[in-house]
Specification:
The protein has 307 residues and is an alpha/beta fold. It has 13 helices and 7 strands. The chain has 4 domains: 34 residues; 92 residues, no CATH class; 108 residues, 2-Layer Sandwich (Nucleotidyltransferase, domain 5); 54 residues, no CATH class.
């Protein structure tokens, strides 16, 4: 249920947006009692725990002691549960599974009041955890021993939303090892290079690493050339010398893909196919075989000079 959901009473004309209010209305006006979701989880998990204790001849009262309550850390428990959901891509409603509550209460029966039991609270806590983790990543990037290099790619989700993934590659000052981090998965309206440049510049400012920018790796699509030229213009205004030709690195995976298509399909317009998949018109210099016998693979490498 979203925050804007409206509940209509089927017994009268009353309507309201909150679940608590509608439960109160049903109880007072129609003498109908509806338990909150949290209570529906507690009852079956308590029954399961009681069955387990009975099976092994253990008294529940013996295990529900003040000692068990004293060792609980509410913040740690909730953060660990949220991390489990994020790292293993579980649904937010996993916190409403009676099986999870049973497992945790089997470890410590006093944990019942410390467990998240609402999927809406998971969303809030993920956002809070993201912000705190983002601050740590920001500090590590600003202290990086090397320039910070970026790999960019566009991705369309199953529900047709378009995203620009921005990944950073740098040498960490602590272990002096190459590290990588996903800095952003920004929504885009088009595949145009100008819009991508705007999003990348915004991300650089967000992490405070404009002056540390190094190389940019992307596929051979013409929009990435536009992105680099737009970035050069902006950095020049900031007094930073950045050569878009020198710092533009081609994605080897994309190059191999073009090569295989060229070998398999010969004169087929693989350059045009590639650009059509990206949602833009193909560039003239990357259209299959050129009059001089040049392949689309060769023109892809030389697209910058002929742009």
């Amino acid at each position: 249920m979203g925050k804007s959901d409206i509940f209509y009473c089927k017994y009268c004309d009353y309507n309201v947006t909150g679940t608590t209010s509608i439960r109160y209305h049903l109880l007072k006006k129609h003498d109908i009692s509806i338990e909150p979701e949290g209570r529906k989880i507690v009852a079956p998990s308590n029954k399961k725990l009681a069955d387990l204790c009975k099976k092994y001849n253990i008294s529940e009262e013996d295990v529900k002691t003040e000692v068990l309550k004293a060792v609980l850390d509410k913040q740690v428990i909730r953060e660990a549960l949220v991390s489990l959901i994020v790292l293993h891509n579980l649904p937010f409603r996993a916190v409403e599974w009676p099986a999870i509550h049973t497992l945790l209460k089997a470890v410590n029966p006093a944990i019942d009041e410390e467990i998240i039991s609402s999927h809406s609270e998971v969303s809030t806590r993920i956002h809070t955890l993201f912000l705190s983790s983002k601050d740590l990543v920001r500090k590590r990037l600003q202290l990086a021993m090397s320039k910070i290099h970026f790999s960019l790619d566009l991705w369309t989700s199953p529900n047709k939303n378009q995203f620009l993934a921005i990944c950073a590659h740098f040498v960490d000052p602590n272990g002096k090892k190459l590290q990588k981090a996903l800095l952003g998965l920004r929504t885009v309206i088009t595949h145009g290079g100008a819009e991508q440049a705007t999003l990348l510049i915004s991300t650089l400012h967000d992490y405070g690493i404009v002056a540390k920018i190094g190389y940019i790796m992307g596929d051979n699509h013409g929009s990435n050339d536009t992105l680099c030229r737009g970035l050069k213009t902006y950095l020049s205004e900031e007094g930073i010398n950045w050569d878009p030709l020198h710092h533009r690195v081609r994605c080897i995976g994309h190059v191999l893909n073009l090569a295989v298509q060229d070998i398999l399909f010969g004169d087929t317009d693989v350059g045009a196919i590639d650009n059509e998949e990206e949602g833009e018109e193909p560039r003239e210099e990357s259209r299959g075989q050129k009059p001089g016998g040049e392949s689309s693979l060769e023109t892809a490498w030389r697209s910058w000079e002929t742009a």
